[in-house]
Write a structure and sequence with these properties.
The protein is α/β, with parallel strands linked by helices. The protein is 39% helix and 21% strand.
Protein backbone atom coordinates (compact mmCIF):
# COMPACT_ATOMS: atom_id res chain seq x y z
CA UNK A 1 0.00 0.00 0.00
CA UNK A 2 1.22 3.48 -0.78
CA UNK A 3 2.50 5.81 1.92
CA UNK A 4 1.17 8.73 -0.12
CA UNK A 5 0.37 9.97 -3.58
CA UNK A 6 2.05 12.30 -5.98
CA UNK A 7 1.53 13.26 -9.59
CA UNK A 8 2.63 10.43 -11.85
CA UNK A 9 3.29 11.25 -15.51
CA UNK A 10 0.00 11.46 -17.40
CA UNK A 11 -0.42 8.56 -19.80
CA UNK A 12 -0.65 9.60 -23.43
CA UNK A 13 -0.75 7.38 -26.50
CA UNK A 14 2.60 7.03 -28.25
CA UNK A 15 2.54 8.62 -31.72
CA UNK A 16 2.99 6.23 -34.64
CA UNK A 17 6.01 7.06 -36.77
CA UNK A 18 5.47 7.04 -40.53
CA UNK A 19 8.65 5.32 -41.79
CA UNK A 20 8.14 7.18 -45.04
CA UNK A 21 10.97 6.99 -47.60
CA UNK A 22 13.84 9.24 -46.52
CA UNK A 23 12.67 9.49 -42.89
CA UNK A 24 15.31 9.00 -40.16
CA UNK A 25 13.26 6.27 -38.46
CA UNK A 26 13.14 4.29 -41.72
CA UNK A 27 16.93 4.47 -42.09
CA UNK A 28 17.42 3.42 -38.45
CA UNK A 29 15.15 0.40 -38.61
CA UNK A 30 16.63 -0.80 -41.93
CA UNK A 31 20.15 -0.58 -40.51
CA UNK A 32 19.07 -2.39 -37.33
CA UNK A 33 17.20 -5.05 -39.30
CA UNK A 34 20.29 -5.76 -41.41
CA UNK A 35 22.53 -5.94 -38.36
CA UNK A 36 20.21 -8.33 -36.50
CA UNK A 37 19.65 -10.39 -39.65
CA UNK A 38 23.37 -11.02 -39.94
CA UNK A 39 23.93 -11.77 -36.24
CA UNK A 40 23.03 -15.08 -34.63
CA UNK A 41 21.88 -14.84 -31.00
CA UNK A 42 21.74 -17.42 -28.22
CA UNK A 43 18.80 -17.09 -25.81
CA UNK A 44 19.09 -18.72 -22.37
CA UNK A 45 16.46 -19.37 -19.72
CA UNK A 46 16.19 -16.48 -17.27
CA UNK A 47 15.64 -17.84 -13.78
CA UNK A 48 16.34 -15.59 -10.81
CA UNK A 49 19.75 -14.03 -11.37
CA UNK A 50 20.90 -16.87 -13.67
CA UNK A 51 21.05 -17.21 -17.42
CA UNK A 52 20.80 -20.96 -17.92
CA UNK A 53 21.93 -22.69 -21.10
CA UNK A 54 20.78 -26.30 -21.05
CA UNK A 55 22.47 -27.31 -24.31
CA UNK A 56 19.15 -28.69 -25.56
CA UNK A 57 18.40 -26.07 -28.19
CA UNK A 58 16.13 -25.19 -31.06
CA UNK A 59 16.76 -22.73 -33.84
CA UNK A 60 14.86 -19.56 -34.70
CA UNK A 61 14.29 -18.55 -38.30
CA UNK A 62 12.41 -15.92 -40.27
CA UNK A 63 9.01 -17.07 -41.64
CA UNK A 64 9.69 -15.22 -44.90
CA UNK A 65 13.06 -17.01 -45.26
CA UNK A 66 12.78 -20.17 -43.19
CA UNK A 67 16.26 -21.45 -44.04
CA UNK A 68 17.89 -18.36 -42.55
CA UNK A 69 18.76 -19.00 -38.90
CA UNK A 70 18.73 -15.94 -36.64
CA UNK A 71 19.44 -17.68 -33.35
CA UNK A 72 18.92 -20.54 -30.94
CA UNK A 73 17.12 -20.87 -27.62
CA UNK A 74 17.50 -23.34 -24.79
CA UNK A 75 14.75 -25.72 -23.64
CA UNK A 76 13.87 -26.16 -19.97
CA UNK A 77 13.60 -29.43 -18.13
CA UNK A 78 11.16 -29.98 -15.29
CA UNK A 79 13.82 -29.05 -12.74
CA UNK A 80 14.21 -25.66 -14.38
CA UNK A 81 10.48 -24.99 -14.15
CA UNK A 82 10.53 -25.91 -10.48
CA UNK A 83 13.53 -23.65 -10.01
CA UNK A 84 11.72 -20.78 -11.74
CA UNK A 85 8.80 -21.20 -9.35
CA UNK A 86 11.02 -21.26 -6.25
CA UNK A 87 12.98 -18.22 -7.45
CA UNK A 88 9.75 -16.33 -8.08
CA UNK A 89 8.44 -17.12 -4.61
CA UNK A 90 11.77 -16.10 -3.07
CA UNK A 91 11.66 -12.77 -4.92
CA UNK A 92 8.04 -12.16 -3.92
CA UNK A 93 8.77 -11.00 -0.37
CA UNK A 94 10.75 -7.92 -1.35
CA UNK A 95 8.87 -7.21 -4.58
CA UNK A 96 5.42 -7.30 -2.97
CA UNK A 97 6.66 -5.01 -0.19
CA UNK A 98 8.16 -2.48 -2.61
CA UNK A 99 6.26 0.80 -2.83
CA UNK A 100 3.99 1.08 -5.85
CA UNK A 101 5.81 4.25 -6.84
CA UNK A 102 9.06 2.31 -7.24
CA UNK A 103 7.38 -0.39 -9.27
CA UNK A 104 5.77 2.30 -11.43
CA UNK A 105 9.11 3.96 -12.05
CA UNK A 106 10.58 0.71 -13.38
CA UNK A 107 7.87 0.20 -15.98
CA UNK A 108 7.73 3.88 -16.95
CA UNK A 109 11.46 3.64 -17.60
CA UNK A 110 10.85 0.54 -19.73
CA UNK A 111 8.34 2.54 -21.79
CA UNK A 112 10.88 5.30 -22.39
CA UNK A 113 13.56 2.79 -23.36
CA UNK A 114 11.21 1.39 -26.00
CA UNK A 115 10.23 4.86 -27.20
CA UNK A 116 13.88 5.81 -27.58
CA UNK A 117 17.00 3.62 -27.76
CA UNK A 118 15.23 0.26 -28.22
CA UNK A 119 12.58 1.30 -30.72
CA UNK A 120 14.39 0.25 -33.88
CA UNK A 121 15.62 -2.96 -32.26
CA UNK A 122 12.27 -4.20 -30.98
CA UNK A 123 10.62 -3.31 -34.30
CA UNK A 124 13.33 -5.02 -36.34
CA UNK A 125 13.14 -8.15 -34.17
CA UNK A 126 9.38 -8.30 -34.72
CA UNK A 127 9.84 -7.84 -38.46
CA UNK A 128 12.44 -10.60 -38.66
CA UNK A 129 10.98 -13.40 -36.55
CA UNK A 130 7.25 -12.62 -36.82
CA UNK A 131 7.34 -11.30 -40.41
CA UNK A 132 5.53 -8.06 -39.65
CA UNK A 133 5.77 -5.10 -41.98
CA UNK A 134 7.35 -2.04 -40.42
CA UNK A 135 3.92 -0.45 -39.92
CA UNK A 136 2.58 -3.52 -38.14
CA UNK A 137 5.74 -3.78 -36.02
CA UNK A 138 5.58 -0.08 -35.12
CA UNK A 139 1.96 -0.12 -33.96
CA UNK A 140 2.55 -3.35 -32.01
CA UNK A 141 6.06 -3.70 -30.61
CA UNK A 142 6.60 0.01 -30.03
CA UNK A 143 3.39 1.99 -29.71
CA UNK A 144 1.05 -0.54 -28.12
CA UNK A 145 3.67 -1.80 -25.69
CA UNK A 146 4.61 1.74 -24.65
CA UNK A 147 0.90 2.48 -24.18
CA UNK A 148 0.36 -0.66 -22.09
CA UNK A 149 3.16 0.31 -19.72
CA UNK A 150 2.20 3.97 -19.39
CA UNK A 151 -1.54 3.48 -19.03
CA UNK A 152 -1.16 0.56 -16.61
CA UNK A 153 0.80 2.84 -14.29
CA UNK A 154 -2.03 5.36 -14.48
CA UNK A 155 -4.63 2.66 -13.79
CA UNK A 156 -2.55 1.32 -10.89
CA UNK A 157 -2.51 4.81 -9.40
CA UNK A 158 -6.29 5.01 -9.65
CA UNK A 159 -6.71 1.61 -8.00
CA UNK A 160 -4.56 2.51 -5.01
CA UNK A 161 -5.99 6.00 -4.68
CA UNK A 162 -9.67 5.00 -4.60
CA UNK A 163 -10.64 4.53 -0.94
CA UNK A 164 -13.91 3.85 0.93
CA UNK A 165 -15.70 6.44 3.03
CA UNK A 166 -14.96 7.05 6.70
CA UNK A 167 -16.52 9.10 9.47
CA UNK A 168 -15.42 10.57 12.78
CA UNK A 169 -15.68 7.22 14.59
CA UNK A 170 -13.85 4.92 12.18
CA UNK A 171 -11.20 4.99 9.50
CA UNK A 172 -11.86 2.62 6.59
CA UNK A 173 -9.23 1.81 4.02
CA UNK A 174 -8.50 -0.79 1.36
CA UNK A 175 -5.11 -2.15 0.41
CA UNK A 176 -4.60 -4.08 -2.81
CA UNK A 177 -2.26 -6.95 -2.10
CA UNK A 178 -0.59 -9.00 -4.84
CA UNK A 179 -1.89 -12.53 -5.19
CA UNK A 180 -0.54 -15.05 -2.69
CA UNK A 181 1.77 -17.14 -4.84
CA UNK A 182 2.94 -16.65 -8.42
CA UNK A 183 1.33 -15.90 -11.79
CA UNK A 184 1.87 -18.02 -14.90
CA UNK A 185 1.97 -15.98 -18.14
CA UNK A 186 1.55 -17.78 -21.47
CA UNK A 187 1.95 -15.46 -24.44
CA UNK A 188 1.32 -15.77 -28.21
CA UNK A 189 3.51 -15.21 -31.26
CA UNK A 190 1.44 -12.57 -32.97
CA UNK A 191 1.87 -9.49 -30.76
CA UNK A 192 5.13 -8.47 -29.14
CA UNK A 193 3.14 -6.03 -27.00
CA UNK A 194 0.93 -8.80 -25.62
CA UNK A 195 3.99 -10.94 -24.93
CA UNK A 196 5.40 -8.17 -22.73
CA UNK A 197 2.15 -6.97 -21.19
CA UNK A 198 0.92 -10.28 -19.82
CA UNK A 199 3.85 -10.74 -17.40
CA UNK A 200 4.37 -7.00 -16.88
CA UNK A 201 0.81 -6.12 -15.87
CA UNK A 202 0.80 -8.79 -13.17
CA UNK A 203 4.30 -7.84 -12.00
CA UNK A 204 3.41 -4.15 -11.86
CA UNK A 205 0.78 -4.95 -9.22
CA UNK A 206 3.40 -6.65 -7.04
CA UNK A 207 3.13 -10.22 -8.32
CA UNK A 208 5.96 -12.51 -9.39
CA UNK A 209 5.73 -14.34 -12.69
CA UNK A 210 6.81 -17.45 -14.55
CA UNK A 211 6.61 -16.46 -18.22
CA UNK A 212 6.49 -18.86 -21.17
CA UNK A 213 6.63 -17.00 -24.51
CA UNK A 214 5.55 -18.68 -27.73
CA UNK A 215 8.35 -20.61 -29.43
CA UNK A 216 7.71 -18.43 -32.50
CA UNK A 217 8.23 -15.16 -30.62
CA UNK A 218 11.36 -15.79 -28.57
CA UNK A 219 13.53 -13.63 -30.85
CA UNK A 220 11.64 -10.44 -29.93
CA UNK A 221 10.99 -11.72 -26.40
CA UNK A 222 14.76 -11.53 -25.86
CA UNK A 223 14.59 -7.78 -26.57
CA UNK A 224 11.75 -7.44 -24.04
CA UNK A 225 13.87 -9.21 -21.43
CA UNK A 226 16.80 -6.90 -22.10
CA UNK A 227 14.54 -3.85 -21.73
CA UNK A 228 13.02 -5.07 -18.47
CA UNK A 229 16.45 -5.80 -17.04
CA UNK A 230 17.78 -2.37 -18.02
CA UNK A 231 14.65 -0.74 -16.60
CA UNK A 232 15.37 -2.35 -13.24
CA UNK A 233 13.00 -5.31 -12.89
CA UNK A 234 14.69 -7.26 -10.04
CA UNK A 235 15.96 -10.80 -10.53
CA UNK A 236 13.30 -13.43 -9.96
CA UNK A 237 10.30 -11.16 -10.50
CA UNK A 238 9.80 -12.29 -14.10
CA UNK A 239 11.36 -15.70 -14.82
CA UNK A 240 11.45 -16.79 -18.47
CA UNK A 241 11.33 -20.39 -19.66
CA UNK A 242 10.84 -22.19 -22.99
CA UNK A 243 10.25 -25.79 -23.92
CA UNK A 244 7.62 -28.52 -23.91
CA UNK A 245 4.37 -26.65 -23.17
CA UNK A 246 2.64 -29.70 -21.70
CA UNK A 247 5.48 -30.44 -19.27
CA UNK A 248 5.89 -26.80 -18.27
CA UNK A 249 2.17 -26.29 -17.71
CA UNK A 250 1.70 -29.50 -15.73
CA UNK A 251 4.63 -28.58 -13.49
CA UNK A 252 3.34 -25.07 -12.94
CA UNK A 253 -0.26 -26.11 -12.26
CA UNK A 254 0.87 -28.80 -9.81
CA UNK A 255 2.36 -26.16 -7.50
CA UNK A 256 0.20 -25.26 -4.47
CA UNK A 257 1.52 -21.70 -4.86
CA UNK A 258 -0.04 -21.26 -8.33
CA UNK A 259 -2.18 -18.13 -7.95
CA UNK A 260 -3.24 -17.13 -11.44
CA UNK A 261 -2.79 -17.49 -15.17
CA UNK A 262 -2.56 -14.69 -17.73
CA UNK A 263 -3.08 -16.27 -21.14
CA UNK A 264 -3.46 -15.35 -24.78
CA UNK A 265 -3.72 -18.18 -27.29
CA UNK A 266 -6.07 -20.80 -28.67
CA UNK A 267 -9.51 -21.51 -27.25
CA UNK A 268 -8.87 -25.25 -27.10
CA UNK A 269 -5.67 -24.82 -25.07
CA UNK A 270 -7.32 -22.35 -22.69
CA UNK A 271 -10.24 -24.67 -22.01
CA UNK A 272 -7.80 -27.50 -21.28
CA UNK A 273 -5.92 -25.24 -18.87
CA UNK A 274 -9.16 -24.34 -17.12
CA UNK A 275 -10.00 -28.03 -16.73
CA UNK A 276 -6.56 -28.82 -15.32
CA UNK A 277 -6.81 -25.97 -12.85
CA UNK A 278 -10.22 -27.26 -11.78
CA UNK A 279 -8.81 -30.75 -11.33
CA UNK A 280 -6.07 -29.39 -9.07
CA UNK A 281 -8.27 -26.96 -7.14
CA UNK A 282 -7.96 -28.80 -3.82
CA UNK A 283 -4.16 -28.48 -3.95
CA UNK A 284 -4.01 -24.67 -4.18
CA UNK A 285 -3.58 -22.24 -1.30
CA UNK A 286 -5.99 -19.84 -2.97
CA UNK A 287 -8.52 -19.84 -5.79
CA UNK A 288 -6.43 -19.01 -8.88
CA UNK A 289 -7.33 -16.07 -11.10
CA UNK A 290 -7.97 -17.31 -14.65
CA UNK A 291 -7.62 -14.57 -17.27
CA UNK A 292 -7.56 -15.46 -20.95
CA UNK A 293 -8.02 -13.95 -24.40
CA UNK A 294 -8.50 -16.62 -27.01
CA UNK A 295 -9.86 -17.01 -30.53
CA UNK A 296 -12.14 -15.06 -32.80
CA UNK A 297 -14.19 -15.40 -35.97
CA UNK A 298 -14.62 -11.72 -36.45
CA UNK A 299 -17.13 -10.14 -38.79
CA UNK A 300 -17.84 -7.16 -40.96
CA UNK A 301 -21.43 -6.48 -41.98
CA UNK A 302 -22.26 -3.81 -44.53
CA UNK A 303 -25.69 -2.19 -44.67
CA UNK A 304 -26.98 -1.17 -48.15
CA UNK A 305 -26.48 2.48 -47.10
CA UNK A 306 -22.73 1.98 -46.46
CA UNK A 307 -19.96 3.59 -48.50
CA UNK A 308 -18.65 0.81 -50.74
CA UNK A 309 -15.03 1.99 -50.82
CA UNK A 310 -14.97 2.25 -47.03
CA UNK A 311 -16.32 -1.28 -46.73
CA UNK A 312 -13.70 -2.69 -49.12
CA UNK A 313 -10.89 -0.85 -47.34
CA UNK A 314 -12.16 -2.24 -44.03
CA UNK A 315 -12.09 -5.75 -45.49
CA UNK A 316 -8.59 -5.38 -46.94
CA UNK A 317 -7.02 -3.89 -43.85
CA UNK A 318 -9.06 -5.93 -41.40
CA UNK A 319 -8.48 -9.27 -43.09
CA UNK A 320 -4.99 -9.02 -44.56
CA UNK A 321 -2.80 -6.80 -42.39
CA UNK A 322 -0.23 -9.06 -40.70
CA UNK A 323 -1.54 -11.83 -42.96
CA UNK A 324 -4.76 -12.08 -40.93
CA UNK A 325 -2.85 -13.38 -37.92
CA UNK A 326 -4.69 -11.22 -35.42
CA UNK A 327 -7.35 -12.63 -33.13
CA UNK A 328 -9.35 -9.54 -34.15
CA UNK A 329 -8.88 -10.01 -37.92
CA UNK A 330 -11.92 -9.82 -40.17
CA UNK A 331 -12.55 -13.34 -41.44
CA UNK A 332 -16.27 -13.34 -42.34
CA UNK A 333 -18.04 -10.57 -44.24
CA UNK A 334 -21.68 -9.96 -45.07
CA UNK A 335 -22.37 -7.70 -48.08
CA UNK A 336 -25.73 -6.69 -49.58
CA UNK A 337 -26.51 -7.77 -53.14
CA UNK A 338 -26.93 -4.17 -54.31
CA UNK A 339 -23.36 -3.35 -53.27
CA UNK A 340 -21.70 -6.56 -54.39
CA UNK A 341 -20.91 -5.92 -58.10
CA UNK A 342 -19.00 -2.70 -57.39
CA UNK A 343 -17.48 -4.08 -54.16
CA UNK A 344 -16.30 -7.23 -55.97
CA UNK A 345 -14.57 -5.23 -58.68
CA UNK A 346 -12.84 -2.97 -56.13
CA UNK A 347 -11.89 -5.86 -53.86
CA UNK A 348 -10.26 -7.86 -56.66
CA UNK A 349 -8.39 -4.81 -57.93
CA UNK A 350 -7.10 -3.91 -54.46
CA UNK A 351 -5.95 -7.45 -53.65
CA UNK A 352 -4.17 -7.77 -56.99
CA UNK A 353 -2.37 -4.47 -56.36
CA UNK A 354 -0.80 -5.65 -53.09
CA UNK A 355 2.82 -6.79 -53.11
CA UNK A 356 3.98 -9.80 -51.12
CA UNK A 357 7.46 -10.67 -49.84
CA UNK A 358 9.99 -9.91 -47.13
CA UNK A 359 9.22 -7.09 -44.65
CA UNK A 360 12.70 -5.78 -45.39
CA UNK A 361 11.22 -4.48 -48.64
CA UNK A 362 8.81 -1.85 -47.40
CA UNK A 363 6.78 -1.90 -50.59
CA UNK A 364 5.31 -5.23 -49.45
CA UNK A 365 1.89 -5.18 -47.78
CA UNK A 366 1.80 -8.98 -47.27
CA UNK A 367 4.58 -11.16 -45.86
CA UNK A 368 4.68 -14.76 -44.62
CA UNK A 369 2.54 -16.67 -42.13
CA UNK A 370 4.28 -17.73 -38.95
CA UNK A 371 5.32 -21.35 -39.58
CA UNK A 372 4.83 -24.47 -41.68
CA UNK A 373 1.99 -25.83 -39.58
CA UNK A 374 -0.03 -22.66 -40.15
CA UNK A 375 0.85 -22.68 -43.86
CA UNK A 376 -0.28 -26.28 -44.33
CA UNK A 377 -3.57 -25.70 -42.51
CA UNK A 378 -4.42 -22.65 -44.59
CA UNK A 379 -3.44 -24.36 -47.84
CA UNK A 380 -5.76 -27.27 -47.04
CA UNK A 381 -8.76 -24.96 -46.57
CA UNK A 382 -7.94 -23.12 -49.78
CA UNK A 383 -7.68 -26.40 -51.69
CA UNK A 384 -11.02 -27.54 -50.30
CA UNK A 385 -12.69 -24.27 -51.31
CA UNK A 386 -11.46 -24.85 -54.88
CA UNK A 387 -13.36 -28.17 -54.90
CA UNK A 388 -16.58 -27.19 -53.16
CA UNK A 389 -19.61 -26.29 -55.25
CA UNK A 390 -20.89 -23.77 -52.69
CA UNK A 391 -17.66 -21.75 -52.62
CA UNK A 392 -15.67 -19.72 -55.13
CA UNK A 393 -12.25 -18.12 -54.80
CA UNK A 394 -12.56 -14.79 -56.62
CA UNK A 395 -8.98 -13.63 -56.01
CA UNK A 396 -5.85 -15.19 -54.51
CA UNK A 397 -5.78 -18.89 -53.70
CA UNK A 398 -2.10 -19.54 -54.45
CA UNK A 399 0.63 -20.40 -51.97
CA UNK A 400 4.33 -21.28 -51.91
CA UNK A 401 6.61 -22.39 -49.05
CA UNK A 402 9.81 -23.01 -51.00
CA UNK A 403 11.52 -19.98 -49.45
CA UNK A 404 9.02 -18.57 -46.98
CA UNK A 405 5.53 -19.48 -45.80
CA UNK A 406 3.66 -17.31 -48.29
CA UNK A 407 -0.11 -17.51 -48.71
CA UNK A 408 -1.72 -15.14 -51.17
CA UNK A 409 -4.50 -12.93 -49.76
CA UNK A 410 -7.51 -15.06 -50.60
CA UNK A 411 -11.17 -14.06 -50.90
CA UNK A 412 -13.75 -16.84 -50.85
CA UNK A 413 -17.39 -16.15 -51.73
CA UNK A 414 -19.91 -18.72 -50.49
CA UNK A 415 -23.61 -19.31 -51.02
CA UNK A 416 -23.73 -21.29 -47.78
CA UNK A 417 -24.00 -19.05 -44.69
CA UNK A 418 -22.60 -21.90 -42.57
CA UNK A 419 -19.73 -22.79 -44.91
CA UNK A 420 -16.65 -24.19 -43.17
CA UNK A 421 -14.43 -21.13 -43.61
CA UNK A 422 -17.16 -18.79 -42.40
CA UNK A 423 -17.34 -20.66 -39.08
CA UNK A 424 -13.79 -21.91 -38.47
CA UNK A 425 -10.99 -19.72 -37.15
CA UNK A 426 -8.17 -19.94 -39.73
CA UNK A 427 -5.70 -17.30 -38.50
CA UNK A 428 -4.37 -16.36 -41.90
CA UNK A 429 -4.98 -14.17 -44.97
CA UNK A 430 -8.25 -15.85 -45.94
CA UNK A 431 -11.61 -14.07 -45.75
CA UNK A 432 -15.01 -15.51 -46.62
CA UNK A 433 -17.88 -13.40 -47.95
CA UNK A 434 -21.61 -14.11 -47.91
CA UNK A 435 -23.88 -12.01 -50.12
CA UNK A 436 -27.29 -11.35 -48.55
CA UNK A 437 -30.53 -9.94 -49.96
CA UNK A 438 -30.90 -6.25 -49.11
CA UNK A 439 -34.35 -6.80 -47.62
CA UNK A 440 -32.97 -9.41 -45.20
CA UNK A 441 -30.92 -7.01 -43.04
CA UNK A 442 -32.53 -8.07 -39.76
CA UNK A 443 -32.26 -11.77 -40.62
CA UNK A 444 -28.59 -11.27 -41.51
CA UNK A 445 -27.88 -9.72 -38.13
CA UNK A 446 -29.48 -12.75 -36.48
CA UNK A 447 -27.38 -15.03 -38.70
CA UNK A 448 -24.18 -13.25 -37.68
CA UNK A 449 -25.00 -13.67 -34.00
CA UNK A 450 -25.76 -17.38 -34.34
CA UNK A 451 -22.93 -18.40 -36.69
CA UNK A 452 -19.89 -18.39 -34.41
CA UNK A 453 -18.93 -19.67 -30.98
CA UNK A 454 -16.62 -16.65 -30.67
CA UNK A 455 -17.43 -13.11 -29.57
CA UNK A 456 -14.30 -11.04 -29.95
CA UNK A 457 -14.61 -8.25 -32.55
CA UNK A 458 -17.04 -7.13 -35.20
CA UNK A 459 -17.85 -4.13 -37.36
CA UNK A 460 -20.86 -2.55 -39.01
CA UNK A 461 -20.62 -0.16 -41.95
CA UNK A 462 -23.68 2.00 -42.58
CA UNK A 463 -24.74 5.49 -43.51
CA UNK A 464 -28.04 5.03 -41.68
CA UNK A 465 -28.14 5.73 -37.97
CA UNK A 466 -31.21 3.53 -37.48
CA UNK A 467 -29.37 0.60 -39.06
CA UNK A 468 -26.30 1.25 -36.87
CA UNK A 469 -28.52 1.29 -33.78
CA UNK A 470 -30.25 -1.91 -34.83
CA UNK A 471 -26.94 -3.69 -35.45
CA UNK A 472 -25.43 -2.44 -32.20
CA UNK A 473 -28.31 -3.96 -30.23
CA UNK A 474 -28.69 -7.16 -32.24
CA UNK A 475 -24.96 -7.95 -32.11
CA UNK A 476 -24.28 -6.97 -28.49
CA UNK A 477 -23.36 -10.51 -27.41
CA UNK A 478 -21.14 -11.52 -30.33
CA UNK A 479 -18.37 -8.89 -30.09
CA UNK A 480 -16.55 -7.60 -27.02
CA UNK A 481 -15.07 -4.89 -29.26
CA UNK A 482 -17.58 -3.43 -31.73
CA UNK A 483 -16.64 -0.97 -34.48
CA UNK A 484 -18.90 1.41 -36.37
CA UNK A 485 -17.69 2.36 -39.86
CA UNK A 486 -14.21 0.99 -39.19
CA UNK A 487 -12.32 -2.28 -39.48
CA UNK A 488 -12.53 -4.64 -36.47
CA UNK A 489 -8.80 -4.54 -35.72
CA UNK A 490 -6.46 -2.03 -34.13
CA UNK A 491 -7.78 -1.48 -30.59
CA UNK A 492 -5.83 1.32 -28.90
CA UNK A 493 -4.81 1.11 -25.23
CA UNK A 494 -6.69 3.67 -23.17
CA UNK A 495 -9.29 4.10 -25.91
CA UNK A 496 -10.73 0.66 -26.71
CA UNK A 497 -10.09 -1.83 -23.88
CA UNK A 498 -9.72 -5.20 -25.61
CA UNK A 499 -11.35 -8.57 -25.00
CA UNK A 500 -14.29 -10.77 -25.89
CA UNK A 501 -16.68 -13.27 -24.38
CA UNK A 502 -18.15 -16.64 -25.39
CA UNK A 503 -15.21 -18.77 -26.60
CA UNK A 504 -13.08 -15.65 -27.11
CA UNK A 505 -12.02 -15.38 -23.49
CA UNK A 506 -12.84 -14.03 -20.05
CA UNK A 507 -13.24 -10.44 -21.36
CA UNK A 508 -11.01 -8.90 -18.69
CA UNK A 509 -10.12 -6.06 -21.05
CA UNK A 510 -6.38 -5.71 -21.53
CA UNK A 511 -5.41 -2.05 -21.59
CA UNK A 512 -7.86 -1.05 -18.87
CA UNK A 513 -8.18 -0.84 -15.11
CA UNK A 514 -10.34 -3.98 -15.21
CA UNK A 515 -7.41 -6.22 -16.12
CA UNK A 516 -5.15 -4.88 -13.37
CA UNK A 517 -7.85 -5.49 -10.76
CA UNK A 518 -7.53 -9.21 -11.53
CA UNK A 519 -3.97 -9.22 -10.21
CA UNK A 520 -4.68 -7.91 -6.73
CA UNK A 521 -6.46 -9.27 -3.68
CA UNK A 522 -8.06 -6.42 -1.70
CA UNK A 523 -7.93 -6.25 2.07
CA UNK A 524 -10.38 -3.97 3.87
CA UNK A 525 -9.16 -2.46 7.13
CA UNK A 526 -11.50 -0.80 9.64
CA UNK A 527 -10.01 1.08 12.56
CA UNK A 528 -12.37 2.16 15.37
CA UNK A 529 -11.18 5.17 17.38
CA UNK A 530 -13.33 4.78 20.53
CA UNK A 531 -14.10 1.10 21.10
CA UNK A 532 -17.30 0.09 22.99
CA UNK A 533 -16.78 -1.40 26.42
CA UNK A 534 -20.16 -3.12 26.96
CA UNK A 535 -22.30 -5.32 24.75
CA UNK A 536 -25.71 -3.64 25.38
CA UNK A 537 -27.60 -1.44 22.88
CA UNK A 538 -30.17 1.30 23.62
CA UNK A 539 -33.11 -0.87 22.44
CA UNK A 540 -32.51 -3.16 25.42
CA UNK A 541 -33.84 -0.40 27.73
Amino acid sequence: MSKGFFNVPKAVNEPVKSYAPGSPERDRVIATYNEMWNTTIDVPLYIGSEEIRTGNTRTMSAPHDHQHIVGTYHLAEKSHVEKAISNALEARTKWAAMSWESRAAIFLKAAELIAGPYRAKINAATMIAQSKTIHQAEIDASCELIDFLRFNVEYMTQIYKEQPGSDSTTWNRVEHRPLEGFVYAITPFNFTAIAANLPASAAMMGNVVVWKPSDSQIFSAKVIIDIFKEAGVPDGVINVIYGDPVMITETVLASPDFAGIHFTGSTHVFKDLWAKIGGNIHNYKTYPRIVGETGGKDFIVAHPSANMKQVVTGIIRGAFEFQGQKCSAASRVYIPQSMWPAAKEQLIADVKSMKMGSPADMKNFITAVIHEGSFDKLASYIDQAKKDSDAEIIVGGNYDKSKGYFIEPTVIVTTNPKYKTIETELFGPVVTLYIYEDAKWAETLELIDQTSEYALTGAVFSGCRYAIEEATIALQNCAGNFYINDKPTGAVVGCQPFGGARSSGTNDKAGSILNLLRWVSPRTIKETFVTPEHYSYPFLG
